[in-house]
Structure formats: C-alpha cells, structure tokens
Design brief:
The protein has eleven helices and eight strands. It is an alpha/beta fold. Strands 1, 2, 3, 4, 5, 6, 7 and 8 form an eight-stranded mixed beta sheet that branches.
Length: 344
C-alpha cells in the first residue's frame, strides 16, 4: 500500500465539469428576463384588449341592427296595416262586417265601412259582397252615408250585395241593410225598429227640492235648447219633434225604396217596433233565413269567404286617443245633453 494515497496534500483536485457548467449557465440565461420584456407583455395585453373590444363592438352593432329591423317591421305593421284583406283573383264571396254602434270613430263608422265596401266591390275576384250585420243602430248620418254608397257601388260595378243578420239589425243598421239586394236573417234575429229618438233627462224638479238654482246665460233665444237643467220650452220641444219626424220620413223613404213590393206595410211597420227574424220574413222586412256560409254557398255560389272589413290598427287608435279625444268628448257631451238624434 502506498502511504501517499492517504495524504490529501498529494491528492489532485477533481477536474471541472464543463458540460454541467454549460447547462447551468444556459438555464440561468433562459430564466433571466430579456431586456424590454415588460414592453412585450404590455403590447400583447393591448392587442388582446383591442381584439376583445372589436368583437364586442361587432356584436353590439349586430344586435342594434336586429332591434332596428324589428322596430321598423313593427312600425310598418302599425301604420301600414288597416286590417282589410288584400285583393285576390280567385272567385270568392267578399264579406264586410258591420258590428256594434254605428257612429263616427267607431268600427261601424261610415269611414271604415265604406272603405271596406269599395275594396270589396273593386276586386274582380269577388262574385258578390255580403254585409254581415250585428248592430242595434246609431247615427242616422253615418247610416245614410253608407246606404248611399252601397247604392252607388252596386250601380257602378253591377255586382250583387246581400245583407246577412246575426243577432240584431235594428234602426240605423236596418237603414243600411235596406240597400241590399236581399236580406237574410236567423229566425231569432231582432229586425226592424224603424224610428228615431232623442233621449235625455230633466233635473228641474230635483234642483227645486234641493234649492239649486240653474244659471244659464245664452246669446240667442234657442241656444240653451233642451238643456236638462232648465224647464222645457213647448216651442223648442215642437221644433225638436219636427226635426225627428223629418229624419223618420227619410228613414221610411229609404226602406220603401230598398224593399219595394216585398214590403208588406202595416200600421206598425214604421212605428219603431221590432220583430224576430221569422216574423221579419213574413212582413217583407227580410227575404229569407240564412247564415253567412249558407248565403255564400247557396246564393252567391262562391263558398270561399274573404273578409274585407277595415279595422282600426294600433297606430290609428293611438292617434285618435291623443289627437281626437277633444272632438270625441264634445260629441259625447252633445249626446248626453240630447242634442244629437239617434236612430235606434
């Protein structure tokens, strides 16, 4: 054994590991941040943020366009649709509804009914026009306008027009129906009431008992005519009665012209009485029993029914509510004061 092997002074140091030093240096260099790394990170963050903002902006624009399209479509529907049917070339029976009170501004106004009737008569595919009625009556002026237009349209287009009654066809409604070529009713329908009235209330006795004095100032002797809070003047009452009689005679003349020899007049025909559909046929106020489908199939000969009724759309109702409410209120006030006659 060599004694120098155990002497550390005589043992040389181990050779350096060059490969290990190189790997360690490379790892340290990789781990150490390169110069300007903060700027690189900020640029990446900025670009990513811009991309997200662009994507969000695109989606926002897309949804805004979708909503804009929906609003435009909705407004177009409100202001463009009047509820009437489009013209069709196929042969059919055209129907126009007359329902509810006949009055200006109502669904059964002359404005709406006449517009629908014109469209129906103008359509070459309409073999005949049916006026479907369910009305207790209303304004003689509106009824007269519709009646006159029916007579004109029938003469112009040489097309038959029939009236079909559901529950009721009374007073002003019958005024209109008398212009039809034929009137068909249900056996239980209410038909007739050929008369005119002007109704209201008088409160003078109640005011005397309560000690209430009516102070009405007028410029014109008849300006306060038929005021419900003032005593009735005999002269004014006679004048109002004369006016009602004149309108009544207009009503009678229209019915006689429309019904002709079919009408079997009695002392009660023009008295304001009304009858069932079954009795109305016997009296010549109607021509037969029948429903809309039955008349379309058996009388007109065109079973397909197309509705031409013009109805108030939402936009028109909005405009009337906020734009014409004052006029409607004035008319309502006049009616409540019994200053406007009613054929009912």
């Amino acid at each position: 054994m060599n004694p120098m092997d155990n002497n550390p002074q005589h043992n040389p140091p181990p050779a350096p590991d060059l490969w290990g030093q190189t790997a360690a240096a490379a790892s340290a260099a990789a781990a150490a941040p390169s110069p300007g790394w903060e700027r690189s990170v900020l640029e990446r963050l900025a670009f990513d943020t811009l991309k997200e903002q662009r994507a969000a902006r695109r989606w926002k624009i897309f949804f805004r366009l979708v909503w804009l399209g929906l609003v435009v479509a909705f407004v177009s529907y409100l202001f463009g649709s009047d509820g009437s049917a489009a013209k069709t070339s196929t042969e059919h029976t055209a129907v126009v509804e007359l329902k509810g009170e006949i009055a200006s501004g109502a669904d059964a106004s002359a404005e709406f009914v006449i517009a629908a009737l014109r469209t129906a008569f103008e359509d070459d595919g309409a073999k005949a026009v049916v006026l479907l009625i369910n009305s207790p009556g209303g304004s003689p002026v509106q009824a007269g306008m519709i009646n006159d237009e029916i007579v004109r349209l029938k003469a112009q287009y040489k097309k038959p027009m029939y009236a079909v009654v559901e529950e009721s066809c009374a007073s002003a409604a019958y005024y209109i129906a008398s212009a039809a070529d034929s009137i068909y009713v249900d056996k239980a329908s209410i038909v007739g009431s050929i008369g005119v009235l002007m109704d209201g209330f008088g409160f003078t006795g109640t005011m005397d008992k309560l000690g209430v004095e009516r102070r009405l100032l007028t410029a014109g002797a008849n300006k306060g005519m038929l005021d419900p809070f003032s005593p009735m003047n005999d002269k004014q009452k006679a004048y109002a009665q004369q006016m009602l009689s004149q309108i009544h005679q207009q009503f009678i003349q229209v019915v006689r012209q429309g019904r002709g020899d079919r009408l079997k007049e009695t002392e009660d025909t023009f008295s304001g009485l009304f009858w069932t559909g079954q009795e109305a046929v016997k009296l010549g106020l109607a021509d037969g029993l029948g429903s809309l489908d039955q008349v379309a199939r058996d009388v007109v000969g065109a079973e397909e029914v197309v509705d031409y009724t013009r109805r108030d759309n939402v936009a028109e109702r909005f405009a009337k509510r906020f734009g014409a409410s004052v006029g409607a209120g004035a008319v309502g006030t006049l009616r409540s004061m019994s200053l406007l006659p009613s054929v009912r």
